[in-house]
Amino acid sequence: TAALDSPVEDTHISADPSVAVSYATDPQRGFWSKTVNLELCDRSSLSSLLSNINFIRKLVSPINLSSNEQSSSEEMQFISLPLSIKLDQCSLTLSYRLSSHGSAFDLLRRCGLSGLPEAAVAVILSRALLGLDRLHSVGVLHRNLCAKHLLLTDFQPNVLLCGLGSICQFPPRGFDVGRNDLPPVFTSWRGWNVQSSANAYSHPLAWYAPEVVVQDFTGYSWPADIYSFGLVMAELYTGQPPYLDLKPTEIMVEKLCGHIPPDLKQTGPTSPPPSEAMLQVYNACTQYNAKNRPTTKSLLQTPWIQWGLGLEPDYDHLENYSEQSPPNTSLTSPPPSKAMPQVYNTCTQYNAKNRSTTKSLLQTPWIQWDLGLKPDCDQL
């Protein structure tokens, strides 16, 4: 699992007894490793580490993933899995393949943390949404989305989800009460040195949805990932992590009091404002009420996400994205011919559980097209 700290820049693992986790990179062989000193982990940390490894092993089969590059489009990789897990006495080493372009946060640093062009944000997030949709389809929450946990690759779908130390199962179907446990942050095996990185990156709480922080009897479910997805959008577009320089207690107060999320605007004097299509997605994802947030399925149908999926990833030439025009939400030309049958079929499903909600229908291209037309009942 990728940590908030930077890996060690050499091929030898540092043996610092004061920390439980150390890192090593091997560019020649194309992998990096994370070693956990089990002697420095308490009983609770060891239990959660074992549970996480077992959960990932069970996760591989239903999602049909592998840790190697895929040769078939039907077996695309969406999450970053360990290439190997080795136990040597009291040291557990997890090895991962190096990402060809680093993470989305690395891309921001190369741009001087001034924010990415809107088209580049759409390219990255639309493909990250494919992975999140795959996780949600098998009832799994990520719970730890941020720019550092989006790896950029040259093979499809060009974005991998990492930071899997917080993944968990959805609440069972039919239960009105969601999860009410906080994701593991301070467990020693995660290797997060939150205090030393506070000035450079926000506390993990910054990306949590309000219902995750509240810890009430209602709990949380998949909408928590959607909220985090929206904050990652702001992080990539503005170049700043959410709630930067705020202490964990201050972040919790901001979320518990229902304050509005960070503004979606870049700080440069010549920076263009975000498109209406982008604002619609951002506002929908960051709704304070979890019930008002869209699903991954409905987000994939929005014009902005579809626009991002249609653009070719080019992480080495971001300046080319500045010339791309975002989609116009006030469409006057008809949407694809299948748009109307898709709405009709989802509304008339025999199984009531498979029918769309009004919220998700409002995000479909056909309904968005309808809303963009001017009513004229006399000139049909």
Automatic annotation (TrEMBL):
Cite the residue spans of the region called Disordered: 318-341
Q: Is the keyword Transferase in the record?
A: yes
Query: Which InterPro entries does the record cross-reference, listed alphabetically?
Result: Kinase-like_dom_sf, Prot_kinase_dom, STE20/SPS1-PAK
Q: Which residues form the Protein kinase domain?
A: 1-305
Q: Tell me the SMART domains matching this sequence.
A: S_TKc (SM00220)
- Record's Gene Ontology CC terms? cytoplasm
Q: Which reaction does it catalyse?
A: L-seryl-[protein] + ATP = O-phospho-L-seryl-[protein] + ADP + H(+); L-threonyl-[protein] + ATP = O-phospho-L-threonyl-[protein] + ADP + H(+)
One molecular function GO term is: protein serine/threonine kinase activity
| PANTHER family, A to Z | FI20177P1, STERILE20-LIKE KINASE, ISOFORM B-RELATED
Q: What is this protein called?
A: Protein kinase domain-containing protein
